[in-house]
Amino acid sequence: MVNQSYMKPFPLIFLLFTNVAIYAQTNSSKFDIKEFTPFESNTLRFDKIIPDGEYLYWRCLYTDAILKKEKEQVVAEYGDRKYARLVKKKYSGRGFLVGCGPAFCYYYIVAVRKDKTIEMIDRDELLKSFVGKVDGIEEVKILAKANRLYVNLKRLNTGSYRKIGDDYLLYLFDDMQSCLPGDGQDEQSVKAFLTSKGDFTLVGRTFYNKKPGIH
């Protein structure tokens, strides 16, 4: 006699894989480039972030590993400025959206919670949690960058989006390519899916400018 308790998970597993396949196929069919809108800018507007949590005050700073605190810039701030004194002397030796060498520039956020304790947002994963649900196209660009992708305005298939409901389908550029010198590199268009909750999924990559003689 077959022990049916071992058979029960199989229909659930089959259903799960079926749903994943249907989901992937459906979203693939929605990446018709003619339905996409080009990004107007690839500038990152941190002042447009609407945090997922409640804060009395927060500021976003830009610095690098060489200049450090002496030359850092406040690129955005929000909230009651009377709490700015609580974060004035705070500094992080690491951050999110780390740029190319040799300076290794980065950003970080210092925030004052409702209980007046300090929260330091200085890693990509912490930035994603800070942003939380997606409130607009400016947050889309920031979350793309936090996932090592980049809005390249030169081509529609490296810098465009399609909004479906509250979710976004994206054509982006691999951020690492912007760090590589010269024209000897292959160039890729990256498809991605960003839900309204901030969940980011890489759908696929396509070479659109494959260089000869480097393989």
Q: What share of the residues lie within helices? A: 10-25%
Total DSSP E strands? 10
Query: What is the number of helices?
Result: 3
Number of domains: 2
Strand content: 25-35%
What string gives the helices and strands in order? Answer: HEEEEEHHEEEEE
Query: Mean pLDDT, as a whole number?
Result: 83
Overall morphology: globular
Structural class: alpha+beta
Main beta sheet, described? 6 strands, antiparallel
Task: Please identify the oligomeric state.
Answer: single chain
The low-confidence parts are: 10-23
Radius of gyration, taken over Cα atoms and rounded to an integer in Å: 21 Å
Distance linking N and C termini: 57 Å
Characterization of the model:
This protein starts with 8 loop residues before the first helix and ends in a 6-residue tail after the last strand. The strands form two sheets. Strands 1, 6, 7, 8, 9 and 10 form a six-stranded antiparallel sheet that branches. The chain has a four-stranded antiparallel sheet with strand order 3-2-4-5. With 215 residues, it is of the alpha+beta class. The chain has helices at 9-29, 124-131, 137-146; strands spanning 37-38, 55-64, 73-79, 105-113, 118-121, 149-150, 160-164, 167-174, 187-194, 200-209. It has three helices and ten strands. Mean pLDDT is 83; it is low at 10-23. The chain is 18% helix and 30% strand. The protein folds into two domains: 32-48 and 133-215, no CATH class; 53-129, no CATH class. The protein is globular and about 50 Å long.
